[in-house]
Design goal:
- The structure holds 2 protein chains of 2 kinds.
- Chain A is an alpha+beta fold.
- In chain A, about 30% of the residues lie in helices and about 40% in strands.
- In chain A, strands 1, 2, 3, 4, 5, 6, 7, 8 and 9 form a 9-stranded mixed beta sheet that branches.
- The longest helix of chain A has about 45 residues.
- Chain A is rod-shaped.
- By secondary structure, chain B is α+β, with helices and mostly antiparallel strands.
- Chain B is built from 2 helices and 13 strands.
- Chain B has a 4-stranded antiparallel beta sheet with strand order 4-3-2-5, with no helix packed on it.
- In chain B, about 30% of the residues are buried.
- The chains are: A alpha+beta, B alpha+beta.
- Chains A and B meet through helix 1, strand 1 and strand 3 of A and helix 1, strand 9 and strand 12 of B.
């Protein structure tokens, strides 16, 4: 009887040890998973709150062929909730990334491109030979300033008509 | 002994329930914060129309006081030439000299009109000179349900010279919001190079444009 009691007690203690070990492992795993989910959520939140839109008249995008290289001027509006980082701006015209000069000026002048302000973008390229009323495909990619360690990214694609 | 086993099972069960409840609580918190993020991101967009847009190339944009004259009292200004529709008001100092002018209607002229004081006989006549410029008049209506702050709205002429509506809108009331169903009359002293053919309005990424009459 005494042997039976001891073995049962050993079983009980073993069960408790196993269950507590499993609990610790589960809690740790859940903590890691929760952290990963939180990071993913913050990344998605940053993307969701990062938004850029074309501003102005897509039918009247200024194109100056009197200068060399030819220049194109258009405006972007920060339509998201996060401050955008104009230094991350990537401009693609007719499928070709503009690698020469991209000049971005916040309108009205200020230190940050927040949700009220515009960005005046002047791009140029030696390879452009556009004429008045030519249509071009314009794509823009921009990222937000880092918020809590996360940057959101947004892009826009639209057809615009040039006004020489 | 049976009681010991029972207590042990109870402890194991309780431990598992605690772990399970932690998982459920954590899931709930994540779902709530995600939904809040999605809700805050799905903001309604403004919907509006440009009812009409007109360019007045001969609007009186400024009245310079060459000589204030004397013997006036605060009153009104009109144009003695042309029928462009200019009106204004002025204030005087202690000697009755005109010291400030305010334009109440810019009018539209083919050449600079002569600006005169209405209905007064001064001691010395003032000299006032009108300066002409471009003025875009437009009526725009908020046809959506979104209440838009005027500072979120930008005006463009021929896709350039962006001007914030909140910085120029003065007529009507001083309320800085554009409510559903409300029509705003915009008077914009546009400084771009002539000819100007189109007016574009941008609000929260929504763009509308209209040819100027």
């Amino acid at each position: 009887m005494a042997d039976g009691g001891a073995s049962t007690f050993i079983l009980l203690v073993t069960a408790l040890l196993v269950s507590s070990s499993v609990s610790i492992v589960l809690i740790n795993q859940w903590g890691d998973m929760s952290s990963a989910i939180e990071d993913d959520r913050r990344g998605k939140e940053a993307d969701t709150k990062t938004s850029v839109s074309f501003a102005g008249d897509a039918m009247e995008v200024e194109y100056d062929d009197s200068v060399s290289p030819n220049e194109m001027t258009f405006y972007l509006q920060n339509t998201g909730q996060y401050v955008l980082d104009e230094s991350t701006l990537v401009v693609i015209v007719d499928g070709a990334s503009v690698t020469s000069t991209v000049t971005a000026t916040i309108v009205p002048t200020g230190p940050v491109w927040n949700d009220v302000k515009l960005l005046k973008v002047v791009v140029n390229s030696n390879s452009w030979t556009y004429q008045n009323n030519d249509g071009v495909s314009l794509s823009v990619v921009v990222s937000s300033e880092a918020t809590s360690g996360f940057r959101g990214t947004d892009s826009l694609n639209l057809e615009v008509r040039l006004d020489v | 002994m049976g009681a010991s086993v029972g207590i042990g099972g109870l402890i194991i069960g309780m431990t598992m329930m605690v772990v399970f409840s932690m998982v459920v609580a954590s899931f709930d918190a994540k779902v709530d914060s995600s939904l809040q993020s999605i809700d805050s991101a799905n903001e309604a967009l403004p919907v509006f129309t440009i009812d009409d847009a007109t360019l007045w190339e001969g609007a009186v944009v400024d009245v310079l006081i060459g000589s204030g004259g004397s013997g006036y009292s605060n009153g009104n200004l009109v144009s003695s030439t042309g029928n462009g529709g200019f009106t204004g008001t002025f204030t005087v100092d202690g000697s009755g000299a005109i010291i400030s002018v305010a334009i109440t209607s810019h009018g539209n002229y083919s050449s600079a009109p002569i600006i005169v004081v209405q209905g007064q006989t001064p001691v010395t006549t003032a000299t006032l000179t009108a300066t002409l410029g471009n003025f875009i008049h437009a009526n725009v209506t908020n046809t959506g349900s979104y209440i838009t702050s005027l500072r979120d709205i930008w005006l463009f002429s021929d896709g350039d010279t962006p001007t914030n509506l909140g910085s120029i809108y003065t007529s009507g009331n001083s309320n800085p919001y554009w409510y559903s169903g409300e029509t705003l009359h915009i008077e914009w002293e546009e400084s771009g190079t002539l000819p100007v053919s189109r007016l574009a309005i941008t609000a929260k990424g929504v763009n509308m444009a209209s040819t100027l009459a």
